[in-house]
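Usage

Read records sequentially. Each one opens with the input sequence:
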Amino acid sequence: MAEAERIIGTPETPDAADTPEEPETAAPRPRGKRRIAVLFAVAAFAYALDLVSKIIVVAELEHHEAIEVIGDWLKFDAIRNPGAAFGFGQAFTIIFTVIAAAVIVVIARLARKLYSLPWAIALGLLLGGALGNLTDRIFRSPGVFEGAVVDFIAPKHFAVFNLADSAIVCGGVLIVLLSFRGLDPDGTVHKD
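and closes with the structure output:
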């Protein structure tokens, strides 16, 4: 009888659904485990792949003829890019360095609330790509925080890019898709 009263509620006792077990100001509990390890593993993999590819390109391809991968549709051609995508903003290298550093800080702060595996992968790709290009900006010539990024993937009629750029774009596209699906980094789903 007590169980039925608890489920249905009676005038003498408040309904079980009306008495919150936690204060209303408490934040909703995230679902599952934190995905910080996934974020950093994906970031480390993307960063290492980018770094190794650039080391090989600088050692073997720079100051040499382009290598045709798929006819003239796709070539490996080493260039140094002091600007952003498509060579824009070559005079603003220091600003791109600051932006990359800010992205890294934002992702590191967001990692504390990360419970979603797809978000961990997306942010890991962004983090690894940002670290890859930031490494070039810091350590490559012409100087600290003004270094030119090593780009080498050259599709026909498109900008030359690198694996860090690819990781950033893939991470960004994944974030857009996750946002459209209503999945938040903390693992909750919202309907707007």
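Summary fields computed downstream for this record:
- The beta strands are 67-70, 74-81, 149-155.
- Residues 36-60 form the longest helix (25 residues).
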